[in-house]
From TrEMBL:
Cited Pfam families: Clr5
Top-level lineage group: Eukaryota
Domain Clr5: 14-66
Protein name per Swiss-Prot or TrEMBL: Clr5 domain-containing protein
InterPro entries: Clr5_dom
């Protein structure tokens, strides 16, 4: 993925990240979509442009961990 957004313009702002936080985390964690699928859907359905690295940093900031539920379940279901 390049560093320039297609068609010019700017990358997602902090306000846009906050606006779409629940949408993004729902697709990635609850719907179990891949990160590439989330990126594609956000581009086509919402006009939201961000790199894979931007998403990963934002997930870290939000404390969103995709496999945490499975890991916690497997540790405590012995």
């Amino acid at each position: 993925m390049g560093t320039k957004r297609p068609s010019g313009g700017s990358w997602a702002s902090a306000a846009e990240w906050e606006r779409y936080q629940s949408t993004i985390t729902d697709m990635y964690i609850d719907q179990n979509l891949t990160l590439n699928a989330v990126i594609g859907k956000m581009k086509t359905e919402h006009g939201f442009y961000a790199t894979k690295t931007m998403y990963k940093r934002r997930f870290e900031k939000w404390g969103a961990e995709k496999y945490l539920k499975a890991l916690m379940f497997s540790r405590f279901s012995v």
